[in-house]
């Protein structure tokens, strides 16, 4: 084993151009055994570097942390992915290590932060990805945990606190936790997604290092009674109930004299702009070459808002469960999925059967109230989770408990009514024009700010093709049609034909397929063909299509360039995937089947909405970049009023959205967010910022780009509050993504950015539209 010899040195503060570097100690791993993979001391190092949408070169200038050379990478603007693959002649062996990390030095030569992502591929057993935000001009040592105690173990958090003390910066899990056999490393990828501009990073001394000694109690006692990081101090941390009430009183005094922005009409539209036809409800119209919402008064409207202002996702698993089975009963006719349920009142009969089901998780908390404590009413129960080690169990809402601490309780639940009013006051004070998706029903009757309603189609209907959240439904199944009508009736009963409801989102982030290989693009059709036609209505519809088109199986076999024994054999199930070459006819048929399937889904939803909510816009299904294909968009165009997309990137960019020109229909961003690690949480979120100020800068940049795009009619930040630091009960998300903290304190940088951008919202969007 070769010892890495850059034992101890410092980089003195200096500036180059507009980039400034401060003193950094990079000696933090010096006592650990390590093996250098690439130190970029010679031009030969480039033989291991494969570029994609980037330019890599050896530099002897800024960013060299040891020796004479380092790797300078320019990541290109507006590429879906830009980076390098480091591929050795033969895989790097890790046999000399037990618990180890990939460690590297990185310098950001850009004037904004960079979210650098890394994937380490073991070869046959796959790999995992992590990411980190490198501040503008920042330089440090970064580490990527590969093997170790707790690595890949899910404790109900998307990522955990660091298991050992070091000055190096830990990379954060990207996606889900998983374990990989890293006996060898076949390649390492460094990349960036959807840059807002060209960005330059210098990498040096990429090595494998034996992990420092871990703290065996790194998960114990990490969360205080307010649901905050118990081991870290930070700017907005609350230390007492009195402090929390004092902050609330100060904000209430400021909100009491606040007024909505002066250019807004009753519904938040641009009253200083042109007056269009007023229908009494929200609608869409293209004006001056730009798509727009038009409010009930006829004013141009652009929806800036915050999603998920509700209690449903504020709870976290405590590690306690109950032996009383009654708490786990689920009504098969229920139309509300578990993660959208509000708080569940628990009886003494139920809590008397409590037991410590997950000790390691329960020991994370300091100060959970006893069942006879006044704040015990914030315990609840989750009957099922989407992912994670806990299938069901007791939950607690620190956020709701903190609301009671902030506002007191003059009568049962009074703090929730105060929360409702304060939240609306904030939205108007900050200049937002609406709520985003998943606003609590508490807001529907306020008649102060527009909102979007939402529904899910759940039930015991036929399904196929495993999706991210759930298997894809069979829209040709009569039970799916019945459940769609039932779910939408529930929404209609909530909305009550209110003109304050802009539109309705139905379902979310479904796995329609992804452009790329036929297996990913046509996953639904391919999966349906594997089913029995007698058991899956969609398969029976596909059978009818193929029989009418080809008349006999010989013609089908010839067109598909594969043996299909008989129509009976096809009806029993057939696999068409995994072929080296797909015939043109097979690809055309898979595309047609995909359109047929998606068309039926959107038709069923559209028809139910048209009957029960005829005055409200159908906002679509909130597509994702990883779950959307041209065929599905084509199918939706006939039925959707506004296309919704959840798009988690640094900014929306230009290239990805070229398809909007062909569609020429209004669109809306349903979700995006940025988070940082300086607010005490253990995971920033999907997209990382360097700190709170940088988070606000990124929000303003992203939202501004949406406002400037002629096809978008709105942008909704996800979400109102930070996730619980110990992970939301649904799936463990523990992100710094709120406009307010878990103690309900607004983030000053975010509020300032929102007021600044929203003040000029309408002039920026429609200032060139003639009155």
Concise account of the structure shown:
The chain has 771 residues and is an alpha+beta fold. It is built from 17 helices and 38 strands.
- Based on helices, strands and strand pairing, what is the structural class? alpha+beta
Largest sheet: 7 strands, mixed
Poorly predicted tracts of residues: 1-26
| Overall body shape | globular
- Discrete helix count: 17
End-to-end CA span: 75 Å
Q: Describe it for me?
A:
With 771 residues, this protein is of the alpha+beta class. 24% of the residues lie in helices and 22% in strands. The strands form eleven sheets. Strands 5, 7, 8, 11, 14, 15 and 19 form a seven-stranded mixed beta sheet that branches. A six-stranded antiparallel beta sheet has the order 6-9-18-12-13-16, with no helix packed on it. A six-stranded parallel beta sheet has the order 29-23-38-37-36-35, with helices on one face. Strand 37, helix 15 and strand 38 (712-718) form a beta-alpha-beta unit. Helix 6 (478-495) packs parallel to helix 12 and helix 12 packs parallel to helix 13 (630-636). The protein is globular and about 70 Å long. It starts with 9 loop residues before the first strand and ends in a 5-residue tail after the last helix. Residues 1-26 have low confidence and may be disordered.
């Amino acid at each position: 084993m070769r010892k890495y010899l850059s034992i101890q040195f410092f980089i003195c503060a200096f500036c180059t151009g507009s980039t400034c570097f401060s003193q950094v100690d990079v000696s933090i791993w010096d006592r650990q055994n390590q093996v250098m993979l690439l130190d970029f001391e010679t031009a030969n190092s480039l033989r291991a570097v494969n570029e994609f949408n980037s330019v890599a070169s050896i530099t002897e200038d800024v960013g060299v942390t040891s020796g004479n050379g380092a790797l300078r990478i320019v990541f290109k603007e507006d590429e879906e992915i830009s980076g390098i693959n480091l591929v050795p002649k033969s895989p790097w062996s890790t046999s000399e290590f037990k618990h180890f990390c990939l460690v590297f030095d990185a310098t950001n030569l850009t004037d904004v932060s960079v979210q650098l992502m890394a994937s380490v591929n073991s070869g046959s057993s796959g790999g995992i990805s992590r990411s980190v935000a490198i501040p503008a001009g920042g330089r440090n040592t970064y580490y990527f945990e590969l093997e170790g105690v707790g690595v890949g173990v899910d404790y109900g958090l998307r990522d955990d606190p660091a298991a050992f003390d070091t000055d190096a910066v830990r990379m954060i899990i990207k996606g889900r936790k998983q374990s990989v056999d890293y006996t060898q490393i076949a390649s390492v990828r460094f990349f960036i997604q959807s840059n807002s501009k060209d960005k330059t990073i210098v990498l040096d001394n990429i090595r494998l290092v034996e992990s420092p000694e871990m703290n065996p109690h790194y998960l114990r006692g990490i969360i205080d009674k307010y649901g905050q990081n118990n081991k870290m101090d930070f700017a907005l941390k609350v230390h007492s109930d009195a402090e929390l009430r004092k902050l609330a009183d100060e904000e209430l005094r400021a909100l009491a004299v606040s007024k909505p922005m002066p250019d807004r009409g009753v519904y938040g539209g641009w009253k200083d702009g042109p007056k269009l036809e007023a229908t009494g409800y929200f609608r869409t119209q293209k004006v001056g070459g730009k798509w727009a919402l038009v409010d009930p008064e006829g004013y141009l409207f652009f929806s800036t808002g915050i999603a998920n202002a509700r209690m449903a996702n504020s709870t976290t698993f405590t590690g306690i469960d109950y032996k009383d089975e009654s708490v786990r009963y689920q009504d098969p006719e229920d139309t509300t999925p578990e993660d959208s349920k509000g708080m569940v009142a628990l009886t003494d009969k139920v809590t008397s059967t409590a037991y410590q089901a997950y000790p390691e998780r329960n020991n994370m908390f300091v100060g959970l109230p006893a069942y006879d404590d006044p704040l015990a009413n914030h315990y609840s129960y989750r009957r099922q989770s989407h992912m994670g080690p806990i299938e069901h169990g007791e939950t607690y809402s620190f956020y709701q408990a903190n609301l009671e601490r902030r506002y007191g309780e003059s009568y049962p639940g009074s703090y929730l009514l105060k929360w409702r009013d304060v939240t609306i006051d904030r939205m108007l004070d900050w200049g937002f024009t609406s709520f985003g998706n998943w606003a609590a029903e508490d807001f529907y009757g306020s008649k102060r700010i527009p909102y979007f309603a939402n529904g899910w189609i759940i039930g015991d209907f036929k399904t196929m093709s495993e999706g991210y959240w759930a298997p894809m439904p069979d829209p040709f199944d009569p039970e799916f049609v019945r459940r769609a009508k039932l779910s939408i009736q529930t929404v209609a009963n909530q909305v009550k034909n209110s003109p304050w409801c802009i539109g309705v989102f139905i379902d979310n982030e479904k796995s329609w397929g992804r452009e790329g290989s036929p297996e990913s693009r046509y996953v639904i059709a391919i999966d349906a063909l594997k089913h029995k036609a007698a058991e899956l209505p969609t398969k029976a519809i596909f059978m009818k299509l193929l029989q009418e088109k080809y008349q006999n199986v010989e013609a089908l076999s010839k067109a598909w360039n594969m043996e299909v024994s008989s129509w009976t054999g096809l009806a029993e199930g057939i696999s068409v995937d995994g072929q080296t070459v797909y015939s043109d006819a097979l690809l055309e048929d898979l595309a047609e089947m995909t359109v047929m399937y998606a068309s039926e889904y959107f038709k069923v939803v559209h028809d139910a909405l048209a009957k029960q909510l005829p005055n409200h816009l159908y906002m679509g299904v909130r597509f994702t970049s990883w779950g959307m294909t041209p065929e599905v968009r084509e199918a939706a165009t006939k039925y959707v009023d506004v296309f919704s997309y959840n798009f988690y990137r640094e900014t929306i960019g230009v290239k990805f959205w070229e398809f909007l020109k062909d569609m020429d229909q209004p669109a809306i961003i349903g979700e995006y967010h940025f988070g940082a690690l300086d607010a005490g949480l253990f995971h920033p979120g999907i997209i990382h910022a360097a700190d709170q100020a940088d988070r606000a800068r990124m929000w303003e940049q992203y939202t501004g780009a949406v406002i400037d795009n002629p096809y978008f009619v709105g942008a909704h930040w996800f979400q109102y509050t930070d996730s619980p630091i110990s992970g939301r009960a649904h799936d463990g998300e523990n992100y710094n993504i709120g406009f307010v903290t878990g103690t309900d304190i607004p983030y000053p940088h975010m509020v300032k950015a929102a007021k600044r951008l929203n003040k000029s919202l309408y002039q920026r969007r429609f200032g060139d539209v003639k009155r």
